[in-house]
Design goal:
The strands form three sheets. A six-stranded antiparallel beta sheet has the order 6-7-3-4-5-8, sandwiched between helices. A six-stranded parallel beta sheet has the order 11-10-9-12-13-14. It has two domains: 148 residues, no CATH class; 172 residues, NAD(P)-binding Rossmann-like Domain (Rossmann fold). It has 346 residues and is an alpha/beta fold. The protein is globular.
Amino acid sequence: MKKGDKYGAHRVIRPKGVLPQAADALDNTMEIYDNEILIDVETLNIDSASFAQIKEQACGEPDKIAEIIIETVHERGKQHNPVTGSGGMLMGHVAEIGPGLRPKCDLNKGDTIISLVSLSLTPLYIEKILDIKMDKDQVDIIGKAILFERTVYCKAPHDIPIKLALAVLDVAGAPAQTAKLVKPGDTVLIIGAGGKSGMLCAYEAKKRAGITGLVIGTGHSPKSTQRAKNTGFCDHVIQIDATNPIELENAVANITNNMMADLTINCVNVPNTEMGSILATKKNGCIYFFSMATEFTKAALGAEGIGSDARMLIGNGYTNGHAMISLQLLRENTLLFNILSEMYAA
């Protein structure tokens, strides 16, 4: 059995010299190398920005969505959205473990696992799409995938429904980074506080900011705005179009008496919210762009254009302990568990 590169570079078809995420195409033949894991895939959790773009392209038609996903995987050997550049995660069962990896791996054949790396770097083969959960960004399939030696994964928790765990772990980096960024007394703005990552971040922000802090949430639709209000995690919730930077700036200014946010966490799945995030944040504050719809050129040059010295962070989906942190939030807050269960567990 051939030995593969620990990062999966041996799977890159083109261009040579890059790692799998940056590749245009991967080898998705399902004969494993000695340091790979073969997964029988059950569900793809397409990331929110990608699924929103695919739905728009398909005019909301499930059959067309399936065609777009299958075409992408056929052409690229992975679910790597060519428009958003993002992917998602998967849930499945261990089918085979390469002999070179087996001695240092905590998995056994048959284990249910959730990948904690993007589908944009994961070799994937889809035999058939069984169902598309339009309101959950999840796609049930018959297929297989390859995990590399350095791929991060999580065994399925025993006390949380697997589809709920998959949905939450897809955004695990957001609340874990929030825990590191929010300080007692901070004013925190959560853009998209009614979505799954937004609710997780709002809950964590409220804990960390404490009674002297202030958490402001935004929602785009009446439904998401009401959902954010129902959690009680935000001190203020406003319905607003975050792509309108002046409106967002004025709304936050009114709530904070022109002091603005110390930290803004952007969790939305639509483009053109960069300037709203910047204007709503103190000029020496911090902005965490978790959204994969963010265009970082717009953010960097937009901040320069208005003279903002805010620290801007890329939404790294990984931080130490992020899976355990996110699952623990569900365990410690019944309201959060119930709301997200209603959305994703079925």
